[in-house]
Write a structure and sequence with these properties.
single chain, 565 residues, alpha/beta, Glutamyl-tRNA Synthetase, domain 3, Ribosomal Protein L25, Chain P, elongated, binds adenosine-5'-triphosphate, binds magnesium ion
Length: 565
């Protein structure tokens, strides 16, 4: 028993695959990722993608991307293209692109087989009656009066359903299994329903469409899938998955294995809810950087490497959990810390005049593109008499532990030299509008004073060379960890009104302004940012905050605030 538990925590699915290969059960591992094209993929789907493709890759197998396109009313081509794009972006390439609709004829033929062997019948009760006959968890169901229709009559009716002779809902095809089963899924489940609707791939050829359970297992079998990996809500469907395959001449019988969904706090991951957020305009689109969609995370600047590392770290198990968004953000930080070039940007600019720096002059300083990776080379940082610093890096009456700029105090300008604040200029309202500082020429890199220590280092940008930019800061989309948790409330009530903070007068270094969509940076001391792939224009940069750095001052400030309470 303890052994079994351990297997679960170390990825029980991988272990099953290893055992099957060792036992010679399969020569090749084949998996599939089967999205329904009724929305965009989200970070939860990425867990399934990483698992399916990861297992096949590891053991030299193959993975199909299969669209579960059995509901013509909700699905469309645009969603398919977006899903393909997302899977590729995550770093995976499918062996074959398939559609459940490719198999409509085979699925129909197998249904005819089921009727011929007396294991399916055409039901003519209404959907309400079917529901009433089905029973409950504690009561068995009742058999339909149509259950014993003769085979010939079933065949004829099913054929007419297919030909479009009946209105939606008039009949359904049901498997004849067991109305008294303790598993409600086994109480004569519906296999086909009438839908007189055009399908985006098969047009008007079909007037009946297969139910998920029928289409899914058979599609798996047609593709020779060895391990059909799905989420836990399908556990109770497994007996049905197996029953269907056992009762038709299926080409093979894949093994369905369930694992727990990936969930994150402060967001929603149901496609239906995401669709509502998009369609009602609560967000700007499926790729809004606040959404947990892969399109949104990508636009926000999350990397596929970080998402893959995150799911690898979280592992696969059968136990339900909600992961803190901070864990995902940490995975992103770890990846970006290694790869993002460093640069300086000021989000809330305060002008500083270096009174002893020559007017008109630009001095080009050298800085590392990445302090831990010299291979990324050097960059040139211009300093001029007027520079911008962060408004929050100056305090006129600072508390004791404030190691940034204050009147008469010294601070190092990152990548440059030490400055001392000599004058504070205010407007009529008493607001600080400019600082005057003197710089210490001896404290430049390479000179004797370079090693002189002062307590604080702040970032800055030359006023002459810096470029104005729009910066978008993001916060959680919801104000509560589980917006769907309270069924008596509408989840929209928990939307965070401050999830997007627009700053239109930030200043970035000139090379950043010339970047383009998707380019990533660490703004030193501030966080990780990327060019917005939709709105950023040359000369008019728009930068998304991906994640913050851990901010030591914010921590101190919080501690102080707590002490004061
Ligand atoms: P949603 O409830 O978000 O609409 P879904 O299950 O209806 O999701 P599908 O398109 O049917 O979406 O999902 C394709 C595959 O992705 C399925 O195998 C499903 O089990 C898996 N999947 C969906 N959500 C998650 C998740 N949060 N974690 C892991 N796998 C998931
Ligand atoms: Mg679904």
């Amino acid at each position: 028993m303890s052994n079994e538990n351990q297997t679960v925590t170390t990825n029980f699915i991988r272990n099953i695959v290893i055992k099957d290969l060792e036992a010679g059960k399969h020569a090749n591992i084949i998996t599939r990722f089967p999205p329904e094209p009724n929305g965009h993929l989200h970070i939860g789907h990425a867990k399934s993608i990483c698992l399916n493709f990861g297992i096949a890759d590891e053991f030299g197998g193959r993975t199909n991307l299969r669209f579960d396109d059995t509901n013509p009313l909700k699905e469309n081509e645009d969603f398919m293209l977006a899903i393909m794009d997302d899977v590729r972006w995550l770093g995976f390439e499918w062996e074959e692109l398939r559609h459940a609709s490719d198999y409509f004829q085979q699925l129909y033929d197998f249904a005819v087989h089921l009727i011929q062997t007396g294991k399916a019948y055409v039901e003519s009760l209404s959907s309400e009656e079917i529901r009433a006959y089905r029973g409950t968890l504690t009561e068995p169901g009742r058999e339909s009066p149509y259950r014993d229709r003769p085979v010939e009559e079933n065949l004829a009716l099913f054929e007419r359903m297919k030909a479009g002779e009946f209105e939606d809902g008039l009949h359904v095809l049901r498997a004849k299994i067991d109305m008294a089963s303790s598993n409600i899924n086994m109480r004569d489940p519906v296999v086909y329903r009438i839908r007189n609707a055009s399908h985006h791939r098969t047009g008007d050829s079909w007037h009946i469409y297969p139910m998920y359970d029928w289409a899914h297992g058979i599609s798996d079998a047609i593709e020779g899938v060895t391990h059909s990996l799905c989420t836990l809500e399908f556990e109770d469907h497994r007996p049905l998955y197996d029953w269907f395959l056992d009762n038709i001449p299926a080409p093979c019988h894949p093994q369905q294995i369930e694992f727990a969904r990936g969930n994150l706090d402060y967001t929603v991951m149901s496609k239906r809810k995401l669709r509502q957020l998009v369609e009602e305009g609560h967000v700007s689109g499926w790729d809004d950087p606040r959404l947990p969609t892969l399109a949104g995370l990508r636009r926000r600047g999350f990397t596929p490497e970080a998402i893959r590392a995150f799911w690898a770290e979280m592992g696969i198990s059968k136990s339900h959990s909600i992961i803190s968004m901070g864990v995902l953000e940490n995975a992103v930080r770890n990846d970006l810390n290694a790869i993002a070039p460093r640069t300086m940007a000021v989000l809330d600019p305060l002008k500083v005049v270096l009174t002893n720096f020559p007017e008109e002059e630009t001095e080009w300083l050298q800085a590392s593109v990445h302090p831990q990776n010299e291979e990324m080379g050097k960059r040139k940082v211009p300093v001029t008499r007027e520079i911008w610093i962060e408004r929050s890096d100056f305090m006129e009456q600072p508390p004791r532990k404030f190691f940034r700029l204050k009147p008469g105090g010294e601070v190092r300008l990152r990548n440059a030299f030490i400055v001392m604040c000599t004058d504070v200029i205010k407007n009529d309202a008493g607001e600080v509008i400019e600082l005057h500082c003197e710089f210490d020429p001896e404290s430049r890199s390479g000179l004797p004073g370079a090693a002189r220590k002062v307590k604080g280092t702040i970032h800055w940008v030359s006023a002459k060379h810096g470029v104005q930019a729009e910066v978008r800061l993001y916060d959680r989309l919801f104000t509560v960890p589980d917006p769907l948790g309270d069924k008596s409330r509408n989840f929209l009530e928990f939307l965070n009104p401050h999830s997007l903070d627009l700053i239109d007068n930030a200043v970035v270094e000139a090379p950043v302004a010339e970047g383009s969509g998707g380019d990533l940076y660490q703004f030193e001391r501030t966080g990780y940012f990327c060019h917005d792939s939709v709105d950023s224009q040359p000369g008019r940069p728009v930068l998304n905050q991906i994640v913050t750095l851990r901010d030591s001052w914010a921590r101190i400030e919080k501690e102080l605030a707590q002490k004061q309470v």
